[in-house]
Design goal:
The record marks 155 as: Enhances dephosphorylation of CheY-P. It is found in: Cytoplasm. One of its GO terms (cellular component) is bacterial-type flagellum. GO terms for molecular function: phosphoprotein phosphatase activity. It is built from nine helices and no strands. The chain is an all-alpha fold. α1 (6-12) packs antiparallel against α2 (22-41) and α4 packs antiparallel against α6 (148-178). The chain has a domain at 89-162. It is 76% helix and 0% strand.
């Protein structure tokens, strides 16, 4: 599911009235924050990820979860590749050695024809094993190189997470600065005192999603 920017874009449109007073600013920013907050809350709620969404209710945590699982999967593939490649190298070297030994043995004319037949079959097998080992090694290297997607997607997810977090925090701070909370230090009686502390004295402290909902409701958004 992608971020729904419809409501956000709508609220970013200029006001039909050229009124730049605090009330107009507060109203527009409040609706932007509400649209952003609801869009963030809706991320990751598809049926496929429903269980994950219940276990990880916060949007930022969901994105972090995706990044973490992607990184872990990439590490598993890389670790497996690191183990498999030396094995393939050893098989290749052993195959080459045995092939050489069998060729030397066949040079003795005294050996029976049946023995020669088995030797020929073994040599063919060893040659195929050598070829298969090289092919497998190439595939493992391709798997390893394909994991560069993790670096790219991980960076993108981290940037999106940080962008959304910063945007919401900054907009929330604008609401706090232009609201009555700034002057009175109070919110509705049903609001948690912890959020008041966040709003008044700790602008650098991240406000969780429950607190954001409470603050928006208290401001009439």
């Amino acid at each position: 599911m992608t971020l729904d920017t419809t409501n956000i874009s709508k609220n970013l449109q200029p006001s039909p009235h050229t009124n730049h007073d605090d009330a107009n600013i507060l109203s527009r920013v409040g609706h932007i924050v509400r649209a952003l907050h609801e869009s963030m809350a809706g991320l990751g709620l598809s049926q496929i990820l429903e269980q994950v969404a219940r276990d990880i209710p916060d949007t930022r945590d969901r994105l972090s979860y995706i990044a973490t699982m992607t990184e872990q999967a990439a590490e598993r593939v890389l670790n497996a590749t690191d183990v498999a490649i030396p094995i393939q190298d050893e098989l290749t070297e052993t195959t080459k050695f045995l092939t050489k030994q069998w060729h030397a043995t066949l040079e003795h004319a005294a050996l029976k024809s049946e023995y020669n037949l088995v030797a020929e079959q073994t040599i063919k097998h060893l040659q195929r094993l050598d070829q298969g080992s090289n092919e497998t090694k190439a595939i493992l290297i391709e798997i390893m190189m394909a994991q560069d997607f993790q670096d790219l997607t991980g960076q993108v997810i981290k940037k999106i997470t940080q962008l959304m977090n910063d945007m919401e925090s900054q907009l929330m701070q604008v609401l706090v600065d232009f609201s009555e909370i700034k002057t009175t230090g109070t919110i509705h009686t049903n609001y948690n005192q912890t959020l008041v502390d966040h709003s008044l004295g700790e602008s650098n402290t991240n406000i969780n999603q429950t607190e954001v909902d409470g603050l928006l409701e208290s401001l009439g958004f």
